[in-house]
Amino acid sequence: MRARVLAATTVVALLVAGAPAPADAAPPVTAAGATVPCPRMPAPKVTRPPRPTPPPSVLEQRAVGGEALATEGLATPPGSPAPPAVTATTWLVADLDTGAVLGACGPHEYGTPASTQKLLLAATLLNRIDPKQVAIATRADLDIERGSSAVGLLVGGRYAVETLWLGLLLQSGNDAANMLARLGAGSARAGVAQMNAEAHRLGALQTHAVTPSGLDGPGQFTSAYDLALIARACFADARFRRYALTERAQIPAQPALKAGGFQIQNENQLIYRYPGALGGKTGFTELARHSYVGAAERGGRRLVVTLLGAEARPVRGWQQGAQLLDWGFSLPRDASVGRLVEPGELDVERAAPSGSPAAVRPTPPAEWRGPAGTALRRMADGDWRVIVPTAGLLALVVGGLAAVLAARRGRSRGAGRRRA
């Protein structure tokens, strides 16, 4: 009887939350014929190192997420307003909850990640290292390019893992990236290998990491689409969301090294200047130019923007991201030109026999779509704005059922005594 009560309670709660909406089977609409050029903002000429030759284009990889995304130009929903002109060479806007891609420019074109690659490090190792663990920095951890971004770790210094994550995401510390890769995988090289394995699992087939920090290296590439997959994995983690919104953190003093502590601040201006900002990651190298990942919430809708190859003038990278977010929020909730694939989905498709359901229906699980799917996912992520009202509703349902059962039991016992 108790099992039946619990089952009924669960069903009632899910019904009230709303049934998952069926996956949208309609194919994304593409511009017929020629490639649609992306709106470009004039940018000043800059001197940059020669761009590395990207890997050969693979049609299968360019079509991940939908045929409309296999373009070097613009992909937007029919009838939608034109997106803002930006200096970024490629970009993408997507819904973090449903995975719908709202629009993109060359989403599968190869680009250089710079420090946005640190998100892949976080997606790979964030839950594999105890945040309270205290570790000692080595000389190899501090082997970074002269003049590149660093937290300021000291050889022999003792740092909590949580402090290292904050140094990585707020200050873009390349020293913190090396140390976290070592702590999570045994060495920086092993950490990079695990990052590449995680990129493959997520479906980011155009991403290849060479350094844990995003410092340039031969053969290191990503794409705006891949960055969105990686960002979605990061923002699904409650700890990452907390770190990404942290405005400042304290790097502790090192008494044994006679060094004082100091404060670092979040370099992502989106969290200070964009209402509903959820955080993200900035990046820059002379080769990659400016890269950016940013997310925000508006009206219960969470969007993420990724961009590569931008210039800071006349508009900075985070501001270009903010303009694209505004454009995304202006679109209807069902607007889409494709979708972000689910982790492991592409591997399942390759393993499935031709013509099997897994091969012909590459749709996300139902619980990731519709009101119930969003509510369940946010509950799993620890979102108390959803957990509290749902728990209250569940308590009312359980209480009501318990009262009914108690009343029935009382009547049953009374009838038994009368029969005796």
Model description:
The chain has 420 residues and is of the alpha+beta class. 38% of the residues lie in helices and 14% in strands. It has 14 helices and eleven strands. The chain has helices spanning 2-17, 59-62, 118-125, 161-170, 174-185, 188-202, 224-235, 238-244, 270-273, 317-330, 345-351, 357-360, 370-380, 384-419; strands at 74-75, 90-95, 100-105, 134-136, 158-160, 248-251, 262-265, 277-285, 289-298, 301-310, 338-339. α3 (118-125) packs across α6, α3 (118-125) crosses α7 and α5 crosses α6.
What is the topology?
Blueprint: H1 2-17, H2 59-62, E1 74-75, E2 90-95, E3 100-105, H3 118-125, E4 134-136, E5 158-160, H4 161-170, H5 174-185, H6 188-202, H7 224-235, H8 238-244, E6 248-251, E7 262-265, H9 270-273, E8 277-285, E9 289-298, E10 301-310, H10 317-330, E11 338-339, H11 345-351, H12 357-360, H13 370-380, H14 384-419
Antiparallel strand pairs: 1-3, 2-3, 2-10, 3-11, 4-5, 6-7, 8-9, 9-10
Helix pairs in contact: 1-14, 3-6, 3-7, 4-5, 5-6
